[in-house]
Amino acid sequence: MSDEPPALRLAGTIRAGRTGLTDRFATPEGLTAWVREQDLSPYLDTAAFTADEAVRVQVVELRQAVRALFARLVAPAPPSRADADALPPFDQALDLLNRAASPVLRQLRWQDEPHEQLAPTVDGTAARLTAALADAAIGFFSDPIAAQVRVCPAPRCVLYFVKRHPRQEWCSIACGNRARAARHYHQHH
């Protein structure tokens, strides 16, 4: 599992490769594999999760809303080229995210000693999954780190990333190398 925040991992399920865009959520099996790589407790036991087409559609809709919010966050810089023309309007994206999010009930349990237990307040696998992802996105967007989000400007890259160092320009070393190679090619040809 990546150390990126869940909202960035969700937005990063669309990637660009040599043959074009790839979508980890193109099939229910792809969504199932991705969810099983995540820690979404206490909402969902990800090891037992299996997506169907209806859940896949709901999660893709939520992901597009999150990507629309990332696009708004990086403005006035241009949004990711992956799907900028297919994103819902900002107000719709915000409303969808807020409708999907559900609070977690914090309870005090006392067996041998007191401890906190969290329980989701929604029922159903799809509702728990979208609530977990929406709550993670709300936490991310309301955190000061969100001000450091950028769009990777490397050729063919469509990812958002957190700029963790003042000199960081790309989401990865590979993207930096690709950008420098493209710049060198354009200068000498």
UniProtKB/TrEMBL annotation:
Residue span, Zinc finger CGNR domain: 149-187
Organism: Actinomadura napierensis
Name of the molecule in the record: CGNR zinc finger domain-containing protein
One Pfam family in the UniProt entry: zf-CGNR
Record SUPFAM superfamilies: Jann2411-like
PANTHER family, sorted: BLL6575 PROTEIN (PTHR35525)
